[in-house]
Amino acid sequence: MTTPLLQVEHLRVQPPGAERPILEDVSTVIRAGERVALVGPSGAGKTTLLRALNGSVRALSGRILFNGIQLDDRSSRILRQVRRGMAVIPQKHDLVENLKVYHNVMAGALGRWSNAHALRFLFWQTASELDEARHALDRVEMANKLHDSAGKLSGGQQQRVAIARALVQKPLLILADEPVASLDPRMARQVLELLCKLAEDDGVALLCTLHQPELAREYFPRTLEMRDGKLTTDSAGQAPVAPTRSAGEAPAWTPGNA
Ligand SMILES: Nc1ncnc2c1ncn2[C@@H]1O[C@H](COP(=O)(O)OP(=O)(O)O)[C@@H](O)[C@H]1O
Ligand SMILES: [Mg+2]
User: Fold this and answer.
1) Burial 177-200 (b: 16+ CB within 10 A, else e)
2) FRET label pair with 101: which of 14, 215, 235, 241, CA 20 to 30 Å apart?
């Protein structure tokens, strides 16, 4: 059995401005290298769950453990550490359109670069940095667009650049939020197939929200279903609730046992 990478226990989330909790008692485990689709109707709470996982929205209660680290959004050090291991592909791609494709791809390296390095890269790029960007773009069949402006690309091409950026980050987990929602059905399949293949090749876990259950079934070995802020089904057969621990029992997950 592969190692648990992400453990979510009894998570309850109420974003600022929301009148009631959006997520209630969400618990699940995702193992290293696993590919999981998160499906459910619009408004179910899928995006809120992804945002909670990388500390962008605070939990009222419950806990999230990622690669042996308990997420604490009040600690910038822990947030940085957790976010370095999680690459996010947001629903609406967030490329900087007036920069080059290579700038956008290498944004995936920002977590391991100093501010001075990042600033220098903006104006001057070494051959090895450009090679790394080219290699990542090659994997999404876009190497010929290295020097193009990101704003000139089509929607499908921009989504591929967002995937290349996620790969450059060398994450343990990719969180992809409706990565194919804005693409036509043919392009959606191509991009999803590529994302799943690359995650598998790199042994990276993938949690991907989708609103088309048929795509989830086709591309993902495991599907979680969310309704009204609760996980209602887990195709892996595990009950979508965390195991309860009695006092004195060793914790199921402790820092360093990943
Ligand atoms: N910051 C917020 N303030 C108020 N309501 C929110 C906020 N974020 C999300 N919601 C509400 O939470 C529900 C779930 O949203 P979301 O996570 O975006 O669902 P999904 O991604 O499944 O469509 C929706 O009803 C949405 O309006
Ligand atoms: Mg959403």
Assistant:
1) bbbbeebeeebbebbbebbbebbe
2) 215
Residue owning the nearest CA to atom 17 of ligand 1:
45
Give residue 91 CA to ligand 1 midpoint distance, Å: 14
pLDDT tens, residue by residue, 176-190: 999 998 888 998 999
For the chain, domains (ranges, CATH) are 4-234 (3.40.50.300)
Ligand 1 pocket (Cβ < 6 Å) reads 15, 17-18, 22, 40, 42-48
Q: Which two tokens mark 216? A: 């989830």
Average pLDDT over residues 145-174: 95
pLDDT band at 1 (very low <50, low <70, confident <90, very high): low
**Distance, CA 149 to ligand 2 centroid (Å)?**
28
Q: Which residues of 37-51 are buried (b: 16+ CB within 10 A; e: fewer)?
A: bbbbeeebbbbbbbb
Report whether 132 contacts 101 (CB < 8 A): no
